[in-house]
Amino acid sequence: MTNNVKIDVRHITRVEGHGNILVDLEKGELKECKLAIVEAPRFFEAMLRGRHYSEAALISCRICGICSVGHQMASLSASEDAFGIKISRQEQLLRTLLNVGEFYESHVLHVYFLAVPDFAGAKSVFPLVKTHKDVVVRALELKRLGHHIGDLIAGRLIHSVSTNVKAMSKIPTDDILHDIINQLESAKEKLKADVKTLNTLGAPEFERETEYISLYKEGEYALLWGDIYSSDTGIADKHDYLKMTNEYLVDHSTAKRAKHNRSSYMVGALARFNNSHKWLSPDAKQVAEDLGLKAPCYNSYMLTHAQFVELVHLADEGIAAAKELLGMNRQLEDRSFEVKACQGVGAVEVPRGILYHDYTYNDKGYMEKANCIIPTAQNLSSVEDDFRALIPMVKDKSKEEIQLALEMMVRAYDPCISCSAHILDVEFTDK
Amino acid sequence: MAKPRVAFFEFSDCEGCQLCALDLTPEQLLDLVSVVDIVEFREAMTEKAGALDDHGDGTDSIDVAFIEGSINRESDVARLKRIRERASIVVALGACAHIGGINALKNFQSEEEYRKAAYPTDPYKYESTTAKAIGEFIKVDAVIPGCPIDTGEFLHVVKDLLVGHKPQVPDYPVCVECKLKENGCVYEKGMHCLGPVTRAGCGARCPSNGGYCYGCRGLISKPNIASQQDIMQKYNLNEDEMLSKFKMFLQRSKEVFPDDK
Amino acid sequence: MPYVYHIKQHSKNRLQKISASENLSMFKQRRIVIMTAETLLISKQRLISSMDAAKSNYRIAALTKTNDDRYVYDYIGKGDDIEFEYHPTVIPPKKFLFLSKETLFEFSDDGKIKSELETTPTILFGIRPCDLNAIKILNEAFADHHGDPNYLARLEKTLVIGMECTKVCDEHAFCYRTGSQNAKGGYDIMLYPDGDNFAVKSVTDKGKKFVTKYLTKHTANIGADDFINEVLKKKEQAFSKEKLFPNLDKMPEIFAANSHHPIWEQEGSKCLSCGSCIMTCPTCYCFDVRDEVALNMQHGKRQRVWDGCMLDTFAVVAGGANFRGSQTDRLHHRINRKFNWLVHKHGQSVCVGCGRCVRACLAKISPKTIGDAILADAKLATATVDVPLDAHKADRDLYLPMPAKIVACESFTEQEKHFKLELENGKSLGHDAGQFVQISILGVGEAPISLASPPDNTPTFDICVRKVGDVTNKLHTMNVGDTVHVRGPFGHGFTPEIMEKMRGKHLLFIAGGIGYVPLRSLINQVVANQHDYEKITILYGCKTPSERMFPKELSHLAKIGGKISIAETVDQAEEGWTGNVGVITTLIPPIDLDPTNTIAVIVGPPIMYKFVLKSLTDKHITADNIYVSLERRMKCGVGKCGHCQMSGIYVCQDGPVFKYADIKDNEEVF
Fold it and tell me: Where are the alpha helices (DSSP H) in C105-148?
């Protein structure tokens, strides 16, 4: 077995956006270990400047196709926090449904299309059409469901249409809500059918305990509202988000990173599961048990499994929201409010973890300053810390196996590089 | 007949259009893979077509390249041209590739301004230039407009290419489809809409869902901008507010911003 | 007086009679009391429950309110969903008869074609007079010359229940200006509302049967006539302040005389070409035809979708020329269809004043404004286009193409390829020289192609195709043994009457470029019968020698000599070319001809006509002795889709061969 291994993955595949892995093992010793982001910077904070509050969500959602709804939710929440708007119960429920749509699209894409091929030893989902057709068909139907809910609730899922500060501009009919309930019921059945598949595929062994940060609300599996919670230090107010993220520079890379209580922390489905698991729906808890996922779980590869559990939970949450809406006298709400110079923060859970938008408006409602902190940015140091923990376990394997183990680790985190690119430093790597 | 070899590439964008292209029913996906060979698609698969080049792309020739994203830095131009050389047909996938997309919004600010807004401590660290459409660098054979694209339209273009049609996207405004949806006019609801000058094909999705058109599909080939501006002014927009509406997606449109870089 | 205006579709004879009568202007309301009509009274509640009962046998479309408070015509779930008070809709009820998108036929990759026509019985309930007039006009348009199978099948299955308006619906409606506030037809039953009670009058057998089956048991007929009287009196009062357009009865003549009125440019320049007017118009019936294949490439369908003349690309031909390139030209075209060219055909204004286009137009362009501006001017044109309605029953196969095999082909140039096709049914096409066929490549589409061979009794015929669009590009890749699909022959070619007129004359053929192809059928026909003619002169001009069509035939013609002479020229010589160089008009002056005994036939690119026509005029050949063949965009080939229309005439139906005298004053021709 060679002691010198140099790994240079240009554009990790099956992730959202462009990133490279650089690892240099000299005589078995780790010289270099980087996850470099090579996505072109896009300057969203600049694009948002000078735009009207009514356009903030439209522009910021275009940071990312897969987290589009999440950015909208964070954006609307930041604007509403700024203007002092409290949204109605109807609006909460509609956003919950739309968010269910996004988690379906994103989690299903990650679990079935990006991660499962790894566990199944395939290079993409396409060959699985032949070997695991039933699974692929279910996966497509589940992913389609995410788009379908987005279409019905907000005109479309990716860069949705009907979302506005204060209230949606579209109200679903009874038929639509019944349709969503039926489809989510059947989604749960499909998911249950794949518990076995996921168990058969398993997950690589790995463990590294770390700090887990997520949104938190007593009594709820918090996704759209709540405080910030750290498994190390407990609850913090969302306006203190900068104290939780503490962006810093490191020597070995020029990338901006985030840390809180330790060298890194983790956000995303596993962090949410570890922090809020007791408020999962009973069926979701059962599926977690069937998958052997127990809180606290320190195996980053199990992030995929946590996402799967969340899909079951979200089906239940979506069904409950739709049922409550059915019992309401739904109507288009007045969207006017008093515009003033102000500042506000939105903190929401998106599929990849906690997302912050922080806006400052002038007295005409035009944006003066914007800041967005993206979950993938927060996770990058955690990925590298996992690399460091993983490499001693695999260093005697072939270069290809090491590379695959590293790539799988990156993919397990389900990184969203398009999102992170505008905030992270960009490193150009030389061969 | 050999199946056409199809590949997907992306530059600066959100990858939402690729997600829309994948938003298929099981039947559609099975049909699609029965008529085309997807040989490169970084977001969904690890394989590449042929040996890797120094951009991390494959090197084999391909029949159709769907290119997503706008060009935001000089170093991407070479990669774009390499893809053009490999592909018989290049399709611009989505607004970023087609008209620069939302990325071009930064072009209205001076370089220093936009750099400082996003990276206050070290604004000039990263490479970035004016955001441009791919058609400003290479020949584009067809476009699938929209931010994001419409899955149905994507499949339409695929089918057009398969039967040997020149892919056609509508060259009439969104109003046509909006009227077919029997929507009341957005202007009557107190909003402003670029539907009368924006290329249809989206099924008037925004006006049909309580929104308004902000031009993500680009202008029709002969827009009556003067009349559109008259209407917006008639509905109480001042000159700046009106231009601001066009800025969202139409920075690269010479009909509206003739003097811009 | 309780009149119901029920005017039957004009037969040819009837129409001729009407126009022959000076006293009876077409706008004079001809009041025909329907003596046999069932009239009865019914309450709203009973009417609703009758509709609920009818639902077991019909689907019912009516005005209804959507969840988001819009008023639309839609299929209703129950009688209570019907909105009895009229609120203008964006899209008129024509959408139930002429669907915004419908399948003409389905095909599979083995070339099999199947079509299905509408079979579901449908009621259109509560349609107002403006829209009833529009339905009457569409009924006539789709039956004119060729019976449109899809529309007419749907019409046959549809029962139209009209409802009188008792007030002007809003400030945009102007039905009273076009004389459309009373329905002149288009319905089976009319409802006369007064509060929660209705009088019902059925005017067709279909209507009477329906009334007998579903309404009579709830009703009384005593006093129904008086009730109707009262309703109509109220209506008359409500509309009494409103006026007809000035000079409404001379509308076509006045519009024909005012093509250069400043109002066109004034309104046209505002137009966004957004298509809102044509999408919302109840009497627009233009369409586009597109093939849609399934993703697995194994089957597909040919569909027609609404299209309209206000859209920029509507009149663009395959070669790229746009025959109505400006908004003003397009506005002029649309309004003239409504107020001029089609008026005689339908015996009423084709704009029914429903106001939908006005409500939909952001630039606030209104036919009312244009009508007022132009009709106030009493300047009259001497001639207007007057093409009589010629109603036909549904032609089941109108849009269904026949398979034909390629039995020979030859490429003339990179751009042009010649095909000999043979109909698989073994029958002869039976065409005249100058006619065209619609060639289909299933999945790609259909294109009009001139016939290049003379009429004969064999199942084979020739076409010559220039690569300009999808269909022709695809054709170029096809070879002997391949199958294409054909509809036709279509159009007005060199009919036996024209051939008779040519007998004994000096025939002067002038062809430019690919224009030789449509002329070839005629040239070959007359050359084969040369003893019938005094002289045959062929002038042929091309850009370059290598672009000459049928080069072997041309040299053969040159060798025949005698009464046949041929002169050629090219714009640019190439190596080996020893002939003339120069534009085609240079060939005309040297010809020795007697203008009184010469007939000229011109076919070429649009730019050529102007110059050639001038040269012929210099030779004193009159417009009566000149024939031209024109090219326009075509989708249907049978006078329906509207694409090829120029000032009231359809190139596909009235042409492509025209006597120059018939079209020289038509402003949309050259």
Answer: 129-143
